Amino acid sequence: MRYSLSVPTSSRLERSPASGLLLGLVITLAVVVAYSAYIRVQLAGLRKLQSDMVDRGRKDSLQLLRLQNDLNTVALAMRDMLDAGEPYPLVAWSAQFDRVRGDLDSALRLEEQYAEVHRTPEQRAYLSQQLSQFWDAVDRIFLLARAGKETEARDQIRLSLQARQAALSTTVSRLLIENNEAEQQADAQIENIYNGVQRQLYIFLTAALIAIALTSLYLIRSNRQIFARLAALSAQRSDLAQKLIATQESTLRHISRELHDEFGQVLTAIGSLLSRVEKQVPQGAPLREDLREVREIAQSTLNNIRSLSQALHPVLLDEQGLESTLDWYIPMVERQTGLKLHYEKSGAAYPVDATASVQVYRVLQEALNNVKRHAGAQEAWVRLQFQNDSISLEVEDHGKGFSPDAGHQGIGLVGMRERAELVGGTLQVFRREGGGTIVRLVVPAEKVEAHGG
Amino acid sequence: MKRREFLSGSASAGLLGLAWPGLLHATSAAPSFRFADVTQHAGIQFQHNSGAYGGKLLPETLGSGCAFLDYDADGWQDILLINGMDWPGHKRQRSTLRLYRNDRNGTFTDVTKAAGLDVEIYGMGVAVGDYNNDGFPDIFATCVGQNRLFRNTGKGTFLDVTRPSGLSARQAFSTSALWFDYDRDGLLDLFVCNYVRWSPEHDVFCSLDGKHKSYCTPEAYRGDTCWLFHNRGDGTFEDVTATSGVFDSSSKSLGVAMLDYDQDGWPDLLVANDTQPNKLYKNLRNGKFKDVAVEAGLAFSTEGKARAGMGVDIGDFENSGDPGIAITNFDNEMIGLYRAVRTGTYDDISIAAGVGLPSKNTLGFGCAFLDVDLDGSLDLAVTNGHIEETVRNIHGNVGYAQPPQLFLNQGGKFQDVAADVNGDFAQPKIGRGLAYGDFDRDGDLDILLTTNNGPAYLYRNDQLAGNRSIRFRLTGTKSNRDAVGALLRIFYDGQSQSQMVKTGSSYLSQSELPLTFGLGTRDKIERAQIEWPSGVKEEFKNLAAGKSYHCTESKGFTPSAGF
């Protein structure tokens, strides 16, 4: 049943979650890349706007303010020049005008550089034309003043220079207003860009969050499936192993019985027959000797068969229980292997059902086998404890020991674990302090009794 | 809890940081000298009369100046204090400028009347110079209205020669002035700063609270040009303002200092303007000047703002040979302390040098570079005081009376030690004028300062650590007799110092003409080099500290025993 169930499960599992995850990653990355590109474009636009429009506009405005300030200074100077109470001749102001002229020229040069972006060539030419006309008028006035024509020069200031100054001032004011408007427009554009970027940022964040959430959900689901499948596989494997063990035990028991019962009977019968026939053959006859040999061979075969039967499945287990089996088994192992075994029993023994007994017996067998084959130890300790709630079996050696965490676990160890699980018990294998290994099997008493029931 | 501990820890670390300057102050800056207020003892009983009667007329807030001068040429510095007077129609008292003769024993005698100076003028500043080369210093007092020139007769009296000298043609609101020989003809010429176009009839109504009249800032008035008068050598002066290039009707000038900013041997002028760009008039060596303040970096603050310049002085405070500059400004404007990054170009280093922040909330007027502790580097003394009595109501951190400041030069960093020099020097005052001179001839520089509508103060400098000095009195023969414009350099141990003989500087005031060089504990210098305004160069070797040397152009020197 389990096998038939597991077929569709495994076919579904062949679709790895990696492709889904990859898709999620690609989508997330694509969103990030797309957004980065978008931001780059927006920032470049913003930078261009700020450097070209706003910064240049502001620098331009500063220069325009400088022009305006110079023009105001000129206006004040002209007012002073026309002041009747002023004791100085008009030429006295020429140094002041020269200074302002130097500053105006420098301001105008800078202004033209900054204004390049957002002013037509005609507009730019207009301001410098106005200025040069103004300075021409100034020069004419100082020429008149130097020639002693103060009154005429003053009239020129009133008629021409003040008007030109006012016109220039108006032009500069208008440019300032234009700059201000351009700046406001640029501000609005910048505001729009910021708003757009903000909107896009929310969209990006939402998209990225959705992609991450979907990928995560998919990952969780895949993980769950994988773990479920792993658990199922593990259960299947365990089931299989236990079935294998059960099958093996029943087969061994069957063979052991067959050997003991069938071949034992036959060989016993052959032995009896041979014994009877032998008695009928006269003493000293060569046949009698042959018959004795055949009988001894039969006896030896019988012994071997019995021994094999015991080894495959001690009949003692079924007939006299675990405790007695161990009493018999441990001295036999000592004899067979040459290991010195210290056998300690404690607690009041109670009957253990046959199935459980076999598993305990097999664990002991495997553990001692390991001591013999791998530990390189000459002696071992076997402890059997009957406690109220459990039976515990411990095999301890002082040999080389082994790492219980080593990746490679012998099939024997796996078998021992499976057997422990089969009877609802636990198997612990750990390194003994000071060298050697301890194998401990603990089987809950209730399981043992339940089995016994 | 942890966060709170962290915060309190960092806060205490911050407090520790704040406490550091104080700690340094307490440990490192015990000045090696003390001031003693000897005003009373010296017999200086002066009260400035601003004429204030409640009309809040603009000139009331700005006076007045003071000077150290040796009017009787006896080698002892006398004191001149400029005074205002009551306004017409509000006459309550008679007040005149005051001349105090040095009695050579630490006291002074008021000789105003005997000297013929007990005249009532609305005086502002003073420039002292021997314009007629007769060996006796003459006095030019700037006024609101008509400035006055008092010629020293050499017999202990002065004659008002304003009219015959040709200086009576111009009337204005004059402030600082200085004598200098811009054409190097051996005759001192006169430069006069004018503030704004003001007359009592045209006083503008300004108010801080919208109800009561207060003193106006200069924005309310039109500027006025400074004047340059050329000394014809016959006792008369020619107004060359219009032709020399210093004419500028937008200036609102309060302070002026002479310097040779481009080191070409021709004296240039630095004019501190209130709310207008400062002017640096470069001497073009042909009787003309050109304003190069913008190019030199002196016209505006580093933020590009025209500050409210008040007083100005120059001094080689780095001993680099290039003169540095200090300009005092309004409150919320720091003192401008400029060093020459290369000859002719200046950087304002006031913040880095430690002068900027302490002067942020003070309104500085008089200022002077002087080596007050005689350690060999020029220090900076500044008087402060606001123009508006009610200023604290508007700016809580700015007072009407403000402590003077004394910035000790400690290897290029300045530290105000005014509070540590005793003599109540740091008592808040409505300070205006400031001058220095060695009135007791002990080799160190004493300080005279004036207050608006208040007394004048004389602080005697007493050295504690035994620092010594060397003093020079220069007399020109081919050059102008006062040797104004002479550059003196001294050399010792691979170091040098330089000072120029100058009039003017500070605010409305003038310090003594002899030069004092601090030498620390040295007992001699290797040589002294004089570049006379005439172009003559002289050098003297192995001069001893603790002496005053009288150098006469091309005629060697005579040391005096002591100062």
Summarize the structure.
Chain A is α+β, with helices and mostly antiparallel strands.
What does this structure look like?
In chain A, helix 1 (2-13) packs antiparallel against helix 5 (150-280) and helix 4 (121-146) packs antiparallel against helix 5. Chain A is of the alpha+beta class and 453 residues long. Chain A is 77% helix and 8% strand. Chain A contains 11 helices and 5 strands; from the N terminus they run ααααααααβαββαββα. Chain A has 2 domains: 18-216, Up-down Bundle (Four Helix Bundle (Hemerythrin (Met), subunit A)); 314-448, 2-Layer Sandwich (Heat Shock Protein 90). In chain A, helix 9 links the parallel strand 1 and strand 2. The relative contact order of chain A is 0.06. A 5-stranded mixed sheet of chain A has the order 1-2-3-5-4. Chain A has helices at residues 2-13, 18-82, 94-115, 121-146, 150-280, 286-312, 315-320, 322-337, 354-375, 411-422, 445-452; strands spanning 340-346, 379-386, 390-397, 426-431, 437-444. Chain B has 563 residues and is mainly beta. Helix content of chain B is 10%, strand content 36%. In chain B, strands 6, 7, 8, 9, 10, 11, 14 and 15 form an 8-stranded antiparallel sheet that branches. In chain B, a hairpin with an 8-residue loop joins strand 2 and strand 3. Mean pLDDT of chain B is 92; it is low at 1-27. The A-B interface holds A 73, 76-77, 80, 86-89, 91-93, 95-96, 99, 103 and B 169-170, 222-223, 225, 241-243, 245-250, 290-291, 294.
What keywords describe this structure?
heterodimer; A: 453 residues; alpha+beta; Four Helix Bundle (Hemerythrin (Met), subunit A); Heat Shock Protein 90; 2 domains; 77% helix; B: 563 residues; mainly beta; 8-stranded antiparallel sheet; 4-stranded antiparallel sheet; 38 strands; globular
